Protein: Cyclase family protein
Amino acid sequence: MSLPAAFHEIAGRVNNWGRWGRDDEIGTLNLISDEAVREAAATVRTGRRVALAVELRQDGVQTGMIPGRVNPLHVMVQVNQELFGPGTVATSDDAATLGLQAGTHWDALTHASHSGRIYNGRPADTITPHGRAAFSGIHTARHVVGRGVLLDVAAAKGVDRLPGGHAVTPEDLDEAAEFGRVTVRAGDVVLVRTGQIGLYLAGDKHGYAFPSPGLSIRTPEWFHARDVAAVANDTLTFEIFPPEIEDLWLGVHALDLVEMGMLQGQNWNLEELSTACAQEGRYAFLLSAMPEPFVGGTGTPVAPVALF
Structure:
């Protein structure tokens, strides 16, 4: 089954292949300039810090819907062990097995492909079981620190969370920007709050997963027009699920990651951030969201922090 004409039309309008050179592997992260980081750092006034990650635990956000994306299996491998003999200092160590996209995470540009290609026109078969991603692995997405902007779509509509069938449109993003009195600009990392993570935090993991609100197939053009560096939200699937266009599964993934080369994140906890932004009276802040640098990874856990 081929992708519909509507997808290819949007792809042609947002495509960034070659924009930063044929050898580029980081896409829109090129837009986070030194000047943008300095300006973002200048927004820190009070030192208030807001953590944006969900807890990594065995009964985490994953429901089994996505094969292989296992919640963390956390075991102790040493417990108060005196490695250098009786009476010496004892240590405890632990180990974990987890899907790199299991909790709050970034998707690498190699997480999605279509028509046999990944970002910048490279062949999708450069991703192999043993070699992992030869290009644009998550370890190349370094220095994700800059100006974060919360577009609180749910709050702008006066609700705790958007309904499961809600596709977040460009008009919704405009409404949220107006609500927060903020202008999205080049190099920003945009966080889109639907309120959906609230279901998981309240213990309704399956309600959190499906059906899910998420970004519309129309939003990549909105982000492209504003030169956004990366986007994350508080849902399991990132885009609306099931999709707006019949049988166009993960179309937003393909447009963001493959065509635009724009990092995207999922399962971000934006609830406390929503409260903080309302209390501080501003929806822009310094954001530190460095990926764990798994070489060749197609995704990675992240523990982002917003600073006011």
Remarks:
- Residues 5-66+99-307 form a domain with the Glucose Oxidase; domain 1 fold (CATH 3.50.30.50).
- The chain has one domain: 5-66+99-307.
- The longest strand covers residues 73-81.
- Residues 51 and 274 are 12 Å apart (CA to CA).
